[in-house]
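Saturday, quiet lab. Running sequence design on the structure tokens for the scaffold JK sent over.
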């Protein structure tokens, strides 16, 4: 099908990406389409929301199919997912409108034979679905948590029994792969606590921007945003501001002038933990797109030297672009393959913010949960060990190393650090911190999940 200018069609087409990279496919489709900002926002909300809540939506579809187990064409399945996402999670869309739009979409996208199925399933769901209820939702087969503090009751029990099979209930109610649901139940010791973390992972993450301390202070950024009609508030970390609505950050004057850099507070904290000082020689591994690199340069007052490495010219170009925009001149980018020529034990401080499973940032990365499994985790752990060992080999005696991830999984976090200390023999653990996702009810306290460890070379 040719590119459409209908946001619901674009969402359905984005969900059909064969490699599962819905975000990238969506971006390509939006570039080709000629949509006003409101429709672009709707297409993004529908595609990423339906991707994020896929397991929940599929549980609803299974419960409401007249012929359980019936297989449908992938586009029709995605049409149902988008429509049900609207009905369950977007209160501004009346049920009848979501139903009619899905039926017309089936006809428009060459699946007219399935339009009756689409119509019947959605109309039945609309009749049986209660209005949203506020308050902490109980764990029950017929009650779906739709937010942190709100729920919707169904006329039929479509979720697994939370007492008999808590992992399957958690996976269905909060849209997690079974491998992750089981892990979180074990890690967080109870269904209510695992559900709290899972609910945070389904929240629409706010746009948080770190203020460039080389150029201004947070109150100046807030004033600049207000002048553009953009509502924002200071973050509790004192280093960032939080926008009250989602906008295209590249259109903001404060961004174009290099006064801000989008960065979650947990990521900011990991870079701050390195504590670089002016005049230091610093190494930043896995540095693209440069959010942490630029913060390190700000902390160094743009004096000293930062070597920023990554695996491709395209990634290095992003670092260079952000440095230019923010007025930073002490960063030299280089391909990761040049690491061996930089000189062992020659850096005062080394940051290793390594690729990971992203289980702490599921609110921002819609597809990440569906890539999680034990085999993928084992591959990541091997790469993380290599990068952690490389970082340890580059720090001088007395130098500081920070190892960080945006994962909640112990294999990627404290177990890597324990392995590294045992292997290296010359490292002292100064501090380690696991941050759990929080702030769904208060954007000024928002934070993604993640981990960092501070090590000292001896």
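Result came back. Writing it out in full:
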């Amino acid at each position: 099908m040719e590119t459409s200018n209908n946001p619901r069609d674009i969402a359905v087409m984005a969900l059909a990406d064969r490699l599962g990279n819905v975000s990238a496919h969506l971006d390509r489709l939006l570039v080709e389409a000629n949509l006003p900002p409101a429709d672009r926002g709707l297409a993004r909300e529908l595609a990423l929301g339906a991707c994020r809540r896929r397991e929940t939506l599929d549980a609803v579809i299974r419960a409401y199919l007249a012929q359980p187990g019936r297989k449908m064409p992938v586009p029709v399945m995605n049409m149902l997912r988008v429509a049900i996402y609207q009905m369950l999670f977007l209160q501004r869309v009346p049920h009848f409108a979501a139903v009619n739009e899905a039926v017309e979409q089936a006809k428009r996208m060459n699946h007219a034979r399935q339009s009756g199925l689409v119509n019947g399933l959605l109309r039945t769901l609309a009749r049986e679905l209660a209005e949203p209820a506020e308050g902490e939702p109980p764990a029950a087969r017929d009650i779906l948590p739709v937010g942190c503090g709100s729920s919707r009751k169904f006329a039929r029990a479509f979720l697994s029994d939370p007492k008999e099979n808590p992992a399957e209930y958690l996976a269905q109610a909060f849209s997690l792969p079974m491998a992750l649901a089981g892990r979180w139940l074990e890690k967080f010791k109870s269904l209510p606590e695992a559900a709290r973390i899972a609910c945070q992972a389904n929240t629409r993450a706010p746009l948080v921007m770190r203020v460039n301390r080389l150029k201004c202070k947070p109150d100046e950024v807030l004033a600049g945003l207000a002048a553009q009609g953009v509502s924002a508030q200071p973050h509790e970390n004192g280093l960032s501001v939080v926008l009250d609505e989602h906008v295209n950050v590249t259109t903001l004057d404060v961004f174009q002038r290099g006064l801000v850099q989008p960065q979650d507070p947990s990521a900011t904290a990991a870079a701050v933990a390195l504590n670089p000082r002016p005049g230091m020689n610093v190494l930043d591994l896995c540095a693209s797109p440069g959010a942490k690199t630029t913060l390190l340069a700000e902390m160094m007052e743009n004096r000293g030297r930062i070597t920023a490495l990554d695996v491709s010219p395209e990634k290095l170009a992003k670092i260079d672009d952000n440095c230019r925009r923010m007025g930073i001149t002490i960063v030299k980018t280089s391909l990761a393959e040049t690491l061996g020529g930089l000189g062992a034990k020659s850096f005062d401080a080394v940051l290793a913010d390594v690729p990971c499973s992203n289980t702490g940032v599921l609110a921002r990365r819609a597809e990440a949960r569906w890539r999680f499994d034990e085999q993928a985790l084992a591959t990541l752990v091997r790469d993380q060990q290599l990068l952690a060992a490389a970082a340890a080999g580059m720090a001088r005696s007395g130098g500081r190393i920070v190892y960080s991830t945006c994962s909640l999984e112990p294999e990627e976090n404290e177990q890597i650090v324990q392995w590294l200390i045992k292997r290296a023999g010359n490292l002292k653990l100064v501090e380690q911190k696991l941050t759990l996702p929080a702030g769904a009810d208060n954007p000024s306290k928002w934070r993604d999940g993640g981990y960092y460890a501070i090590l000292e070379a001896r």
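Notes for JK: DSSP finds 17 helices and 14 strands in the chain. The two ends are 61 Å apart (CA to CA). Ask whether to fix the surface positions before the next round.
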